[in-house]
TrEMBL record:
Gene3D superfamilies: 3.30.63.20. This is 40S ribosomal protein S25. It comes from Besnoitia besnoiti. Residues 1-32 are annotated as: Disordered. Residues 11-20 have a biased composition (Low complexity). Keywords: Ribonucleoprotein, Ribosomal protein.
Length: 108
């Protein structure tokens, strides 16, 4: 085997500087979400939409109510509770004390 060539400190520093320039990773800018401006109270139109649309949906969760009616999650949970008490929807699964899945009530 041939002996390795000895590099001077200047050559080593130049090689390191040249290599690090092209391989240097850039920091990503991070994704930012726009704040959703959902309603915190029901107005007449939204309330009518709640009574007409949501009981006909196949899957009813707080998230689906938020998406359809553009209301915040606490208002969606209250609306679901109201519809359940009226007998318009029924519970399908209770995964956790705070996660409920509902569906339309076929007997109503």
């Amino acid at each position: 085997m041939a002996p390795k060539e000895k590099k001077t400190k200047e050559q080593i520093a130049a090689a390191a500087a040249a290599g690090s320039r092209k391989n240097k990773k850039k920091w990503s800018k991070g994704k930012s979400k726009d704040k959703l401006n959902h309603a915190v109270l029901f107005d007449k139109a939204t309330y009518d939409k709640l009574l007409s649309e949501i009981p006909k949906a196949r899957l009813i969760t707080p998230h689906t109510v938020c998406e359809r009616l553009k209301v915040n999650a606490s208002l969606a949970r209250q609306a679901i509770r109201f519809l359940r008490d009226q007998g318009l929807i029924k519970i399908v699964g209770e995964h956790h004390h705070s996660q409920y899945i509902y569906t339309r009530n076929t007997s109503a």
